Amino acid sequence: MIRTQIYLTERQRKELAALAKTLGKRQSELIREAVDRLIDEAGEARREAVLRDAAGMWKDRADLPDFRAIRAEWDRD
Asked: Does residue 38 lie within any of the structural domains?
C-alpha cells in the first residue's frame, strides 16, 4: 500500500471515528472502502457514457453493406 495524507473537516473526522468504532474497523479501512466504491461508481458511469456516445455512430454511413440483406441470406426458410 502507498501512504497518503488527506485533510478532513472536523465533522468528517468525528463521524468517521464514530463509524469506525461502531463497525469495529480502522478509519483507514473505511476510507479505502469509500474510495473503492467511488472508483467502481465512476467506472460504471464512464462505461455508460461511452456506450451512449457510441450508440448510432454508424447510422448515417453510406459505405456499409446492406446488413439486412446479408442477414436474410443466413436465415433458413
From this structure: yes
Domain carrying residue 41: 27-56
Residue 49 banded pLDDT, cuts 50, 70, 90: confident
* 3-class SS string, the chain: CCCCCCCCCHHHHHHHHHHHHHHCCCHHHHHHHHHHHHHHHHHHHHHHHHHHHHCCCCCCCCCCCCHHHHHHHHCCC
CA distance 18 to 10: 12
Count: domains in the chain: 1
- Is the entire prediction scored with pTM above 0.85? no
